Queue: 2 jobs
Job 1
Amino acid sequence: MSYEVKLDAFSGPLDLLLHLIHRLEIDIYDIPMAELTGQYIDHIHAMKVLELNEASEYLVMAATLLAIKSRMLLPIHEGELEDSEFEVEALDPREELVNKLIEYKKYKEAAVELKLLESDRALVYTRPPSDLSSMEPDEQLALFDASVNVYDMISALQKILRRKNLRKPLSTRVARQEISMKDQMFAVVNSLRSFGGRSAFSELFPYEDKTTIIVTFLSILELMKRQVISVEQQNNFEELFVILDKEVPEDELRTVDE
Amino acid sequence: MNLELLMSKLEALLFVVGDEGINVKQFSQLLEVESMEIEAALSELKTYYEESNMRGITLKNLAGTYQLTTKTDMADTIKKLVENPTSHVLSTASLEVLAIIAYKQPITRVEIEDLRGVKSDRPIQTLVSRALIQEVGRAEGTGRAILYGTTKEFLNYFGLDSLDELPPLPEQVLKDDDQETDLFMTKFQEAFSSEE
Amino acid sequence: MNLELLMSKLEALLFVVGDEGINVKQFSQLLEVESMEIEAALSELKTYYEESNMRGITLKNLAGTYQLTTKTDMADTIKKLVENPTSHVLSTASLEVLAIIAYKQPITRVEIEDLRGVKSDRPIQTLVSRALIQEVGRAEGTGRAILYGTTKEFLNYFGLDSLDELPPLPEQVLKDDDQETDLFMTKFQEAFSSEE
């Protein structure tokens, strides 16, 4: 028999017991206590790296098993049996353990069902709500739902996480495809055109990854040098604006030393 | 409102609310259209999404709302966007705790630990932080222990519209309290119906 | 790949990337299909959205980036969503911002926007006006961006005695894997504003 058992293969002593019962093909309603206890103790011996915290729970179960085993060895006195027919069943020292195991098994199986649902659901993707804040009238700031609680906040964070997962890799892909300054200069000029020749500085950076941002920035500097665009700021700390000063023929932008 | 126009409005609204979802009542209020008409149009929309091979999206009931989602067979394509699609899957321990909470809510930590025979504070913490469970009240008695229940995010995470859609618990072999009540109710109803 | 299948994949990807948008090159990489074929399918998709009265959404091309949006004549319908107090779409944005601030305070607007991936000045304004957050200082550096933190009213609102009572965080959410970009952007903005 192999003792290569890892602790984290089981989610607790009951799980380990169920595993043994299944493997030894034991009838759960008539558990041979000596055999099960022996196997159980062998297993926890084999689990070398027990965290102290969890070890205690496995050890408590071992003690319980030993106690049940020894109680089963005790002779049942005839007289006690006659006292009440009802107690005959309840007298089986295994009953409490069996009940526990069966109850636990139910939820263990339910967890497997949940796992299936989880993987089905993972095949389906949604999208975050659109940002509608620009549509609200100024005087009426977004009302805060009066019924939100702390857990709604956690929920909100969970959504941010999901979204970030979708955002990030797309950007890393962009990074890999080597953006040229030439392309980025075109992109900047094109977006300026689409914004009517003037755009907030930050609008020119709809990118997530560092490389693209840097290349875009360098392109803006290059365009400034060539006096294709200029940058202005009304007051300290206010948003910068980029202005397209002249229409450039495409081939003029092609001459870039990279 | 003609059906096509209604469908286009439903699609636009569904698109905008995203994973927040929206229900028939809200649709009805926003569009000033009877619920029945909304439902008919939604079902039309769903059929249309499902039957057209050109469509990558479809309509789903999630956590008591309607939401647009991508179709299941788009998963492989979309997965390429996601770096580590399986990294956030729940552990066995977390799933066990979650199953217990889902079926037995409201329930305290001690009751959960008693059922599992093992300490469960870590999985509970994980589940709270993943917004799958939350405190739904306090148990009576001196400890006033936290009672846990599942969240909307739980339904969403497992693709359920409501708790009723949870798969039934594996056969209840035991005479636990719940079952006794059930049994009683069954007997009771049998007795009752046989009398008529 | 046949046109219908390609269109459905394009729709699914467009749907999922949201306001970020996606360009032909990225499509081409993800789907392993020639750019020309992608462009043809995108144009087909656009025609299809535009010509069908059932559709509330359409395809928009901005600076080489494609994204799905609602059709312009849906504006009135969507406006109702903003005006309707029962819709959660707006409070969702505020809640997200509040959650980030609660767990990451003190934090600047730029950092919040980086985490959410969308502009957040309006939600911040809302939360300030509701006295749930406040300016708690200025970031170092030339930009001296406002640092936000939560208020006493925040604790009050959520029935907390102190910030320590906040439930534990979903670990991955706020891990600083974007810190590089953050740092870069901060430095970058600093450098730029100092130039005048």
Note: Chain A touches chain C through 54 residues (CB under 8 Å).
Job 2
Amino acid sequence: MDCCYTIAFMRQSNFEKSPSLRPGTGPYRTRRALVIALCCGIGAGLGIGGYTFRYANGLSYFSTDPAACANCHIMRSEFDAWQKSSHHAVATCIDCHLPHSLVPKYMAKAENGYRHSKAFTEGNFEEPIFVRPAGRTILQDNCVYCHQALTESIAMNSPHTGEQPCLHCHSTVGHGDAARLGGPLRKDEIVGVSSR
Amino acid sequence: NIFQKKVEQRALYVRLVDVTDNDTDPAKWGRNWPSQYDAYLRTAFPTHTRYGGHSGSEALPEEKIERDPWLKRMFLGYAFSLDYRDRRGHAYMMVDQEHTERLKKPQSGSCLHCHASIMPLYRELGNGDAMRGFEESFKFSYQDLDKKLHDTGHAHPVSCVDCHDAQTMALRVTRPGFIRGVRALAESDGEVPAFSSIALWRSGKRDQPYDPNKDATHNELRSFVCGQCHVEYYCSTKMPLTFPWGKGLKADEIESYWNETKFPNGEPFSDYTHAETGAHVLKAQHPEFELWSQGVHARSGVSCADCHMPYMREGASKVSDHWVRSPLLNINRACQTCHHFSEDELKSRVELIQDRNHALLERGGSAIVDLIDALKQAQSTGATEEQLSPARDLQRKAQWRLDFIAAENSMGFHAPQEAARLLAEAIDYARQGQLSLFHQPDPQQPSASP
Amino acid sequence: NIFQKKVEQRALYVRLVDVTDNDTDPAKWGRNWPSQYDAYLRTAFPTHTRYGGHSGSEALPEEKIERDPWLKRMFLGYAFSLDYRDRRGHAYMMVDQEHTERLKKPQSGSCLHCHASIMPLYRELGNGDAMRGFEESFKFSYQDLDKKLHDTGHAHPVSCVDCHDAQTMALRVTRPGFIRGVRALAESDGEVPAFSSIALWRSGKRDQPYDPNKDATHNELRSFVCGQCHVEYYCSTKMPLTFPWGKGLKADEIESYWNETKFPNGEPFSDYTHAETGAHVLKAQHPEFELWSQGVHARSGVSCADCHMPYMREGASKVSDHWVRSPLLNINRACQTCHHFSEDELKSRVELIQDRNHALLERGGSAIVDLIDALKQAQSTGATEEQLSPARDLQRKAQWRLDFIAAENSMGFHAPQEAARLLAEAIDYARQGQLSLFHQPDPQQPSASP
Ligand SMILES: [Ca+2]
Ligand SMILES: [Ca+2]
């Protein structure tokens, strides 16, 4: 019983160009995203890799049930906020966070998902969690997937850069204003620190 | 109904007429893109907010130099002391320029760079090479070139073609002043936290000069198109129109750029000599682009268009509101997509920032007036040149900073802390100027610090 | 593993020991809430950022008055000119107070209000009535009351019981100084955009005084608990400890509150008489709460705890980081929870704000030194009292604003534009003070503006 989760190959998107979102800085762990993407076997070759992971409490593999995501307390704050968001009636987690086109591919890549759950159970991931550039590209595609008609016009005059980055203005549609959660003390904090 | 929506949709892409780089008449473009055109026409509506838009009659915006007499005092000896009014919508940019009393002093043809759809005329002057035409333009008198513009039928305010590629509709910049200015900026080592494409260019081969139309991100272009005009400049008869960005965009960097500039005739640069004090001073003009670039919005990738041309829904599609105006007239679209606070709360945030800024501006105004009084008095009581010169230098420094924020059009909003910092320095320099005049051998004199 | 996570979750609620309002020893509470206690203990770690935490040896933070000599000059005639150091973590609040050279001048028992877990002692002094005990406390010498504290076994730095209800663990404020101060604030008509519960109370019956523990929102308490100590105060031997909020929280409102205050003996209020100039001046102390309240974070409901005690995940549960410290050591938890920018970007935003603020602070420092020099000189050359008094009044105004931002501990971050505004005024007043000294009948004198 799985829940699915993908990392797309890095591609130069306008998000990465915008000043505060430089590749490799802060939350955008470009390098890690790449590593993971590479682990995605054939998928990576196609430019997109998908993998799934198992989780103790389990849930139906193709479940579009957001509660599935919330099985991880890590996803809880997003889940709670999503229920109050403008989209809760019209879009679930995977509608925004998984590529619409690629769902069938996950089956095959099931075993790769192991890594995601490992990240979770070992807790060796950075917090607060941010959508990586790869994840942002998926989001963008999904926004447009549903809102194409409305937004064709604003995309038309930026041929060299693709459509407008929806998140620049609408980053809160999924779960309202950010309410992310910082992680436990880092190693360097255990001994006391100085940013001198 | 759905059918109609579909029609609207397609309409966006059906070109009823072809437009080219020489079509400066927005009406023609309007046939292809009626909603943008309709909005564009609305810039003729009068608008007014606590500090924005214009007071005064429909016919003529209010005289800033009457409302704030210290401005007039500061400008004595310069055209701005004749006539300097509230700005208003884009539709007026030509008429307001043609009617300003400032034209009583000789003005150059470069003035049209930012007040008309000038590119075809530049190409004509340069036989096809717009950059060369631009370089010629300052040699014409304003009146002659303005006449040429009318004769050639390009007498339109900023128009579609100035910001859009006629073939693709892509955003693009056209103004030589900006293209040169931003190139110099790229080649300088002034910090540019807001412009990742410049940082990228700097770290690259640098074999080609920085070209905004090639190198800039789409989001940067959403501000660059405005930066073609809403910037500090030199525009007169001694040398071509100049955007002073060769050391960076900070007020202090621009000041030292001007300080190191020489006119072709070798004289050190200054905009005018103050009529009462003889100080060689600088004039700052509407540095919206420069001040914005120092604020947290710019750093966050928030562009001019985000706030001044927010998207709006029209039927089944979203369009950019081409009624360019104060965002305070449009808070729900201009601010609330990113800030989830009530309109009242957002309005009072802006007004609190502006009120603080305005109070400091008035404080700076009385300081500069005190300095001018002191200089006059010292002269009248026969102080020597070298007794006067420190005070004059301080007047230049103080006035530059004070005018930088007075001339900027957001009343400090575009970068609140930076604006306050500049005003604090302005006040300090003005007061130090007064103090320097007491430095005649005199037991009581304290020493003003550098 | 997952099982263990589930356990941690439950662990939060098991009370191994009972705690009461008289349990000032955090170790005891720590048995019930080990993770908060462990974090609390970390406040003993040395921390340092560009402007935050403390430089100097582990043993002793650096002397601010040596690093910035103008501070010492400003404080001449007051205890702060003897010893004034960088602040450090909560763990040190008692020892640092007990060892400061400022104790060489007589200090009152009220000092302990913010440096120890004092409530049981207040109750003892007031036979059960803490408020009465608090009113008595200023009559004791610091040394006597500190001894009493040690004898009664309550000699602990700020402790769990100071912010938490022993039964419910709910946040609550305990400090009489704050409870009175915030009550006066509620009864004033000073603007409080950050405190909706006060606005609510004002619009209500007003038959009961405003009581933070009843009326405040949970989110407000997340700042009020800090406002018990991180505030401007009067704390000496002439009257009880006072938080000067009776006209509002703005620096200007606090100034006029002090100006209208009289000591029990009828003298007009002032903290000290400047040793060199004879001016009756005010001392501002760490107005973090007041400055924060003027910033956009406060308006947006962002509390002290959000940044200085951010929630963090611990296994399966969410705890507040009780290692109260600079958020710059903690950017991912303190800032990135709301701001979607890289750690580097957020750090440089803070440092840009702080660098600008620091530059203005230094500018103000040399202005105040120039004024003090000028006053000294005028006195030495026999200026009359009424020639000197305008300059002295201006010294008081200038110093108040300068010190307000110098003593505040975020180097302007808590409200960048407001801090810059105050520094601009400080500079103007200091310079005007110098100028006022030239107002002897003298042909050359210019007129300084009010
Ligand atoms: Ca200029
Ligand atoms: Ca005080």
Note: The first strand of chain B starts at residue 272 and ends at 273.
